[in-house]
Amino acid sequence: MRKKLSFKERFELVSRNLQEIISKEELKKLLNSKKQPVVYWGTAPTGKPHIGYMLPALKIADLLKAGFHVKILLADLHAALDNTPWDVLEYRYNYYSKAIPEMIKAIGVDVKELEFIKGSDFQLKPEYTRDILNLASLVSVHDANKSASEVIKIVKNPKLSGLIYPLMQVIDEEYLKVDAQLGGIDQRKIMVLARENLSKLNYLPRIELMNPLIPGLIGEKMSASNDKSKIDLLDNREIVKNKLNKAECISGNPKNGLMTFLKYVIMTIKKDKNEKFIIKRAKVYGGDLEYENYKEIEKDFINKKLHPQDLKNAVADEISNLLDKIDKGELKKLAEKAY
Amino acid sequence: MRKKLSFKERFELVSRNLQEIISKEELKKLLNSKKQPVVYWGTAPTGKPHIGYMLPALKIADLLKAGFHVKILLADLHAALDNTPWDVLEYRYNYYSKAIPEMIKAIGVDVKELEFIKGSDFQLKPEYTRDILNLASLVSVHDANKSASEVIKIVKNPKLSGLIYPLMQVIDEEYLKVDAQLGGIDQRKIMVLARENLSKLNYLPRIELMNPLIPGLIGEKMSASNDKSKIDLLDNREIVKNKLNKAECISGNPKNGLMTFLKYVIMTIKKDKNEKFIIKRAKVYGGDLEYENYKEIEKDFINKKLHPQDLKNAVADEISNLLDKIDKGELKKLAEKAY
Question: Are residues A163 and A29 in the same domain?
């Protein structure tokens, strides 16, 4: 059913929209030598997953199309190490293990092609622990701290768990038997730590694929712990509209979370579906606008041919259309217990 | 064969020569409620065990006499966490697992009454690791660092393993199913960490028994990594004599490693055997001296009635007599591989 892609098409699919790849040469070699390479993306069930997760979901879709076997790590122990209370951990895990597949389905990927793995199912094995201790004897407190700094919640009097967190992520690459890891650019220091240390344990270093980060709607990194800056999967059309109305979006300046989401998520989906992005506008204001790619939108926005409010309305509709595809019934019940 | 001891005699035996007990009240309660309480003493196979280890060995003898079941933890993983290279770890473990029983036998304790446990046999179990991660989410980096500071080797750019070390010692108390832990006073901060945190994991806090530290012969803490400051188990009569001749021992000042060893080890053994400590002296210098307890020796030394050289000769003889009881044949072979 699916047409066979050329090497160039596979490489283009895997690398598009990424902010960094370590290294491109290794990725090319992998695509040339393996028909079905293995990659993993991990997420720790901490806060509530938001629509920013659509970005890795799209990349996962790319990887599947490029012939990868994709493993999704639901990292329950990592969540505990990152200040999620142990007593709510199971509920958070239950929510994520339903929410993540729903998001991936929403963008049109068949989740049957994905493998979901629970962290604690392999991260407590004796051989894994031995490797963690071995790695801990190689990595300085300073370097562990540095590598975790952009990933772990910042708290007063930080706990030791935050320093064990990156070490487990390093060892995960080996125990998940992957060729590559996908993560946000905020994971970069941990990924570099992995590149530097796996070979010292006689394991192969892995290829690291890094997504850009989507800023929050009110200027920050889109955080799972700031309600106003993010759109929740369970938000209805009304709420989505309200949140977008409050979003930072100054006429002429494309540097904001809304535009970034439009660029990496909405316009990527549109492009893959050969659909246009339509902005409905009354005839008196010039009538509807149609765009085939993000660059055109950005150009019009900078030149103030596109008004922030019209853009907000259109993006709100697109997001709500996406969220409509999520089966929210069971998710709502799980959320009540988890949050 | 062994006479039944009264509560008072048991308490006296357990607490003698200790620098601190947390807490005496709990120890009394334990002795009153349990006929055979369980205690552990742990040692990490890092450097080479030296005669300073005779002090915990004597305390272990006391505990056995007081009716305790004693577990000796040979903490191989702790050694790795404290900068012992993983590739020599097994050899060091082999040396310790022969040397420690030999030392305990040398002071007249039946090692059949002791239980020897290898750390990695239980410290890699999934439930143990889960507890370590749980504890790591409770203990701050600052507190882990502080608690390890007197135990871990001081190195430039310290490794994360040094912070995991104390956490494992905390959890060991639970997994070894003991009522009490015996250790040097240098372990105090880790023991306090255990007291403060075990209950947060719904485990009982344990009683902590702390030996004083015996200073090295040249003024430092008797360290397994400084050859001159310590007497090795394999040292012959000649070497022991030479090392003691170089020991710090200024006429009139009893504050040195030699006197401390005499007090806590030699005179404790003498007392238990109802033997006198005899210092051989030519008639021209006043003839032989006989002592029944340490206080008398110290008094004469302070009053300069006992010359440092005569004391050194006598202590050297006592140490060599003790070391003569150690079966050195196999130990020497094991040492060649381990060091």
Answer: yes
- For residue range A91-149, list pLDDT tens digits in order: 999 999 999 999 999 988 888 889 999 999 999 999 999 999 999 999 999 999 999 98
Token pair of A44 as six digits: 């720790």
Question: Inter-axis angle of helices A54-65 and A86-106, to 10 degrees?
Answer: 60
pLDDT one-digit tens code per residue, B158-182: 999 999 999 999 999 999 999 999 9
E strands, chain A, are 20-22, 38-43, 69-74, 114-118, 180-184, 207-211, 277-279, 289-291
Domain ends where: A152, A185, A211? A211
Q: Provide, as residue numbers in chain B, all residues whose Cβ is less than 8 Å from the Cβ of A157.
A: 140, 142
pLDDT in tens, A249-269: 999 999 999 999 999 999 999
Beta strands in B232-273 (DSSP E): none
pLDDT of residue B1: 46
The DSSP bridge pattern shows strands A207-211 and A180-184 to be: parallel
Q: What is the pLDDT of residue B135?
A: 98
Helices (H) and strands (E) in chain A, counts: 15, 8
Which among B127, B138, B159 is the nearest to A141, CB-wise?
Answer: B159
- Selection from B100, B82, B72 nearest residue B46 by Cα: B82
Please tell me whether residues A178 and A254 are part of one structural domain: no
Model confidence at A243: pLDDT above 70: yes
CB B203 within 8 A of CB B170: no
Q: What is the mean pLDDT of chain A?
A: 93
Is residue B217 situated within a structural domain? no
Closest Cα of chain A to B303: distance in Å? 51
* A201 in any annotated domain: yes
| Same-domain status, B64 and B195 | yes
Which neighbouring-strand residues pair with A72?
A: A41, A116
CB A164 to CB B133 under 8 A? yes
Pairing of strands B289-291, B277-279: antiparallel
Which secondary-structure segment (H or E) carries B116?
strand B114-118
Q: Structure pTM?
A: 0.92
Q: How far is CA A275 from CA A58, A63, A237, A268, B35, in A?
A: 16, 21, 22, 10, 81
Q: Which residues contact A97 (CB under 8 A, 6 or more apart)?
A: A45, A74, A116, A118
pLDDT, one tens digit per residue, over A185-237 is 999 999 999 999 999 999 999 999 999 998 888 765 555 556 667 899 999 99
Helix H or strand E segment including A145: helix A141-148
DSSP-derived letter for residue A233 is: T
Strands A38-43 and A180-184: parallel
Say whether both A198 and A251 belong to one domain. Answer: no
Contact B77 A133 (CB under 8 A): yes
Read off φ and ψ for residue B310, nearest 5 degrees: -65, -40
User: To the nearest whole angstrom, how far is the Cα of B55 from the nearest Cα of chain A?
Assistant: 30
Which residue range is the domain that position B108 belongs to? 7-211
